[in-house]
Amino acid sequence: DVVGILCLVSVAAKLDFKYHHDKELEEYLKGVHAAYPSLTHLHSIGRSVESRDLWVLVLGRFPTQHKIGIPEFKYVANMHGDETVGREVLLHLIDFLVTSYGRDPVITRLLNNTRIHIMPTMNPDGFEATKEPNCYYSRGRYNKNGEDLNRNFPDAFEINNASIQPETQAVMNWIKDETFVLSANLHGGALVASYTFDNGNSVTGSSKGYSRSPDDDVFIHLAKTYSSNHASMYKGTGCDNRQTFPEGITNGYSWYQLEGGMQDYNYVWGQCFEITLELSCCKYPPADQLEKFWKDNKVALIEYIKQVHLGVKGQVTDKNGNPIPNAIVEAKGRPHICPYRTNEHGEYFLLLLPGTYVINVTVPGFKSMLKAVKIPDNTGNFSALKQDFSFSEVSVRPRVASCPKIPLYQELTRASAAVKPTLHILVLMTAILVIFK
After folding, report:
1. Pick from 317, 320, 319: which is nearest to 329 by CA?
2. In 93-208, where do the E strands start and end?
3. Which residues does UniProt mark as catalytic (predicted)?
4. Beta strand spans in 282-409 (E)
5. Residue 278 a catalytic site member
6. In the beta sheet, which residues pair with residue 389?
7. Burial, 237: exposed, middle or buried (Cβ in 10 Å; 0-12, 13-18, 19+)?
8. Which of 168, 284, 287, 321 has its CA 20 to 30 Å from the CA of residue 203?
């Protein structure tokens, strides 16, 4: 009935600048989904230690499932329960996206060409446990088991002995189930965009105080995209006199070393470029400041999503036109330690800055295919350059290939120190040695 519809719309439209606790957050997300059922999909990817749902709202023209050629993007906030600005900013981002769709041509094109996943809180227990909001560290940072979720992921550099928490496992499964291309996680306690790697060793140049990934240029661009579109992050002043961040960005390792971080896990094992956004000097500021935080971040949040359309994408198929999953697709000169592979649809997405690259596609057991591509800046067109590959002699499905969760870069340092490599290390080395020539 009309009254019911009006009620739904008013539920979706009424979003105050205040902190939304667990029940209110759930009600708001359900209200948005009810008001915009064809544009949104609401699901829980798992539960916290105290059995709170880990809600994700998906927005896009095809919200319920992946569509070939449409990249997947995600924002995750409130991983540390007492860092609260991101949680509320993402609710206002949802509100802005659904109410602008069909009215604002840029937002309409963005949602038609991107599938956007928004998780307002990864640590609902920590948020609820923070009874006394303040600007500094509190116990609410951790999950109910007292674990820091941003030290809880497998690490590419050293063995992480932390026992994997339900919230972490849920996110790891989610990354495995979707073809995420770009992501950011929202924190508080500083004002900076921080990028991979957070950990490092001699292979990535950590002895020089900087841990460089093969896609360092792309990460710098991503971090600058956010900071330069933020009201003040780009000034790089930091939160006290001791700390400055030129242009409002930092390499994670340069700032401080951290083991088991989510952004490195996304990049190494999830084939997803993620940066960490520190949005407020105060971890849990008064609610009357939330409107200003939303205004400060609004443009940056949108501009950052557009970067999912950087680079090149396409499908790898066999002689019958069937997709080839698990084919390795890399840009020459920047192989990943876990080679980036096609998904079940034979799709690949490589984030690359404008320029000329040689794309190397390998179907295990067959010879590689090389193709030079000139990549323009297509972010304004909401589509990366499309480049498909067809293997005329292949009509088999390669076996599922997964990268071991061992500290991969640790193995590289051992091998380079003339330790006798085992067979599986040799296989790994072959795929990636090019980078260290």
Report:
1. 317
2. 115-119, 180-187, 190-195
3. 278
4. 312-318, 328-331, 347-350, 355-362, 369-375, 385-386, 389-391
5. yes
6. 316
7. middle
8. 168
CATH number of 312-391: 2.60.40.1120
Mind listing the pLDDT tens digit of every residue in the chain (437 residues)?
Answer: 544 454 455 455 579 999 999 999 999 999 999 999 999 999 999 999 999 999 999 999 999 999 999 999 999 999 999 999 999 999 999 999 999 999 999 999 999 999 999 999 999 999 999 988 889 888 899 999 999 999 999 999 999 989 999 999 999 999 999 999 999 999 999 999 999 999 999 999 988 999 999 999 999 999 999 999 999 999 998 787 677 899 999 999 999 999 999 999 999 999 999 999 999 999 999 999 999 999 999 999 999 999 999 999 999 999 899 999 999 999 999 989 999 999 999 999 999 999 999 999 999 888 899 999 999 998 889 999 999 999 988 776 667 778 888 888 887 777 666 444 444 444 454 444 433 33
Helices 85-100 and 105-113, axial angle in degrees (round to 10): 100
Measured between alpha carbons, how far is 53 from 48 in angstroms, rounded to an integer? 7
**Neighbouring-strand partners of residue 57:** 42, 118
Question: Which among 88, 278, 330, 347 is annotated as catalytic?
Answer: 278
Rg (CA), the chain: 22
Q: For 375, phi and psi rounded to 5 degrees?
A: -100, 120
What are phi and psi for residue 132, nearest 5 degrees?
Answer: -115, 95
Check: CB of residue 389 under 8 Å from CB of residue 316: yes
- Non-local (6+) Cβ contacts of 16 within 8 A are none
> Residues, the chain, total?
437
Identity of residue 112 = N
Q: Is the peptide bond before 197 cis (omega within 30 degrees of 0)?
A: yes
Q: Where are the alpha helices (DSSP H) in 274-347?
A: 290-306
DSSP string, 211-273: ---TTHHHHHHHHHHHHHHSSSGGG---SSTT---GGGEEEHHHH---SS-HHHHHHHHS--E
The domains of the chain are located at 22-309, 312-391
Residue-wise burial string across 103-119, b where 16 or more C-beta atoms lie within 10 A, e elsewhere: eeeebeebbebbbbbbb
Question: Do 153 and 198 form a contact (C-beta atoms < 8 A)?
Answer: no
